Amino acid sequence: MTSLFSKILIANRGEIACRVIRTARRMGIRTVAVYSDADVRALHVESADEAVHIGPSPVAESYLRADRIIAAARETGAEAIHPGYGFLSENPEFVERVEAAGLVFIGPSAASIRAMGLKDAAKRLMEKAGVPVVPGYHGEEQDGNLLAASADTIGYPVLIKARAGGGGKGMRRVDRAEDFAEALASARREAKAAFGDDRVLVEKYVEKPRHIEVQVFGDRHGNAVHLFERDCSAQRRHQKVIEEAPAPGMTAEMRRAMTDAAVRAALAIDYAGAGTIEFIVDASEGLRPDRFWFMEMNTRLQVEHPVTEMVTGQDLVEWQIRVAAGERLPLRQDEIRLDGHAFEARLYAEDAAKGFLPATGTLHRLSFPAAGTDLRIETGVREGDTISPYYDPMIAKIVTWGNDRKEALDRLVAALRETWVAGSIVNTAFLAALARDPDFAAGDVDTGLIGRKQAVLSAVPPAPAEAVGLAALAVAGLPVSSSSDPWAQLTGYAHFGRLAKQVSLGEDGAMKVLVAPETDGGWSVDVEERNIRFSPQRLEKGLATVVRWPGHVTVFTGAIPYTFAVRDPLAAAADAEAAAGSLRAPMPGLVKLVRVGVGASVRKGEALLILEAMKMEHTVAAPHDGVIADIAAEGVQVDGDAVLVRFAEETGGQ
Ligand code: ADP
Fold first, then answer.
1. Contacting residues for 71 by C-beta, under 8 A, at least 6 apart
2. How far, CA to CA in Å, does 453 sit from each of 134, 351, 446, 560?
3. 337-368: b (≥16 Cβ within 10 Å) or e
């Protein structure tokens, strides 16, 4: 029996840092987080036992600084470093430096990473180990004519791939010989810019391809096992969107062939730790054991590892830590069982309708359904946090389990319905549309599915009149939320006056909504051609949750949240106040969450606190850079106009 580490450092941020910390804590191992300027108050910093600042916000100056990370480990007495995924996780020089510093890298050896680091060398190695690889050219020669000739031999369509590639960069599909030269030039340019290496390989473009990968694990005693497969065919622009385990339609024969090949691949490079062998599968005639080929190996923990954990009941981070400490694999192959089905959906701050353009913003509202054995929420942010432009805009992974695929998928749809985000553009509706897509639901997936249906999946349905009416009532200052809270009762709102109001919604204020009082105490709302009545009884019952955030209002009523642009008088008032060095409560309310302390220096736009009033949440953000001199306490009820935040006097020139 080896002894485990007493303290580890996590060289990462966000959800994966939080995920690793959780397992370490359960194992009685102390944790050290590292963080950049942008992450001073991040969840992973708060979750760890200790935290070390490693530099400015850009990753090149912080999360990629091997020297600072290793120094942080030594200063804090950490014995091992977990790299998470991305950043330094597949960098063999980093592994060597960690080991040279007398620390343990929780992952494979530098040699294993190198063996799989370049797609061409990896393919040559796999061919030798008897693992099927996609027919193609993966030699050293890079002459354009030779590559074009090999494309002719392979037969069109072909795929040009950067040998140093990742994230779909430097990859081009070519359908005709006459387009080859131009596609090659552009793939090379992109590869050079992204990886500093413009060498490429050419391979057969697989039609109706499915991406099926096998989770493998090795230890330092020569053992290797697999933990079944995951299907990651639901992709947009070669990026995974919803993953699942097991693969739909998988047969015993196909599984045996794929998992055998994956274990052979791991053994061929003396692999220790968690790894994934990615295969591309020609599914044009169903799953057939002679129609899958090695694509690449990821020598780290994958983003989508939770689906494997859900169907095997194993904690892969625990396995990683045990293997790194020198222990044998916790289970033998015949002890690893597959039970039920699991999905993972990646919740992103991005605009699906605009080609998945990444978004930023402050998460004025962020709430998830309660997690349990059938539902895991993996996140590195909390309400009030900011999605910054510096890092990947993933907000959370929503992971569900069911006895079968249908049950797991139904749970995913239900979980997405209860996932409420306001403050940024998010892909919740897109994920829900994909999860409900008839082909996806039938398990008829391939990597082109999303591309073919993109317009339908990312269409933003017009808001129903009811949602527009609720938004207008909220903007007019009326309580519309379901709550037993006295604030949600109309009687408290006499001071709003019972006059008709016109509310303008939408970017250009084009949607005009007339809100007028009725004699029975209810409200009549005219939305375009329709009239909707909100009786006092309905209002008292509560109709929805409405979140006001700077310049917007979001209505959560059912399946899809609706966000409207509003010209926000509250924000304008806050700006004016800010000029005077303080921020006041725009209305009576409860200070729900305070994000910063006295003395903190804050940046313009940073969330300072959340005020809950009329069951709506108003984020009070810093109107300019400054130092907090005074701030309201969490949990306190404040009057309208009460000072919430005071800034220190400008000291000038700092
Ligand atoms: P990267 O390392 O850039 O992510 P991969 O080699 O892992 O590149 O491929 C990414 C995705 O591109 C795959 O999941 C698959 O959808 C698609 N792809 C890769 N190779 C082929 C191929 N030969 N034919 C068709 N599609 C492919």
1. none
2. 27, 16, 12, 19
3. ebebbbbbbbbbbbbbbeebeebebbbbbbeb
Our answer to whether residue 417 is catalytic in this structure is no
- Type of residue found at 345: A
SS3 assignment, position 334? helix
The pLDDT-based confidence of 23 (bands split at 50, 70, 90) is very high
Ligand 1 centroid – CA 97 distance (Å): 31
Q: Does residue 643 contact residue 583 with C-beta atoms inside 8 Å?
A: yes
Q: State the DSSP H helix or E strand holding residue 408, giving kind and residue range, or none if neither.
A: helix 405-417
State the pLDDT at residue 653. Answer: 39
Which one-letter DSSP state was computed for residue 4?
P
Residue 274 in tokens: 């968690």
Strands ordered across the beta sheet of 523-527: 501-505, 511-517, 523-527, 530-534
At 488, is the pLDDT very low, low, confident or very high (cuts 50, 70, 90)? very low
Identify the residue with better confidence: 33 or 495.
33
Cα separation, 557 vs 569, in Å, equals 24
Beta strands 545-549 and 530-534, pairing class:
unpaired
Question: φ, ψ for residue 59 (rounded to 5)?
Answer: -60, -35
pLDDT greater than 70 at residue 413 = yes
Minimum-distance ligand 1 atom for the alpha carbon of 278: 7
- DSSP β-bridge partners for residue 630: 646
Q: pLDDT averaged over the chain?
A: 90
| One-letter amino acid for residue 118 of the chain | L
pLDDT-based confidence at 490, cuts 50/70/90?
very low
Looking at residue 219, the DSSP 8-state letter turns out to be: -
- What does the DSSP assignment read for 437-505? -HHHHTT---TTHHHHHHHHHT--PPPPHHHHHHHHHHHTT---B--SSGGGSGGGGGGG-S--EEEEE
pLDDT score for 259? 98
Ligand 1: residues within 6 Å at CB?
134, 159, 161, 165-169, 171, 203-206, 209, 211, 235, 238, 278, 280, 295-296, 447
pLDDT of residue 494: 39
Read off the pLDDT of residues 161-211 as tens digits, 9 standing for 90 and up: 999 988 778 899 999 999 999 999 999 999 998 889 999 999 999 989 999
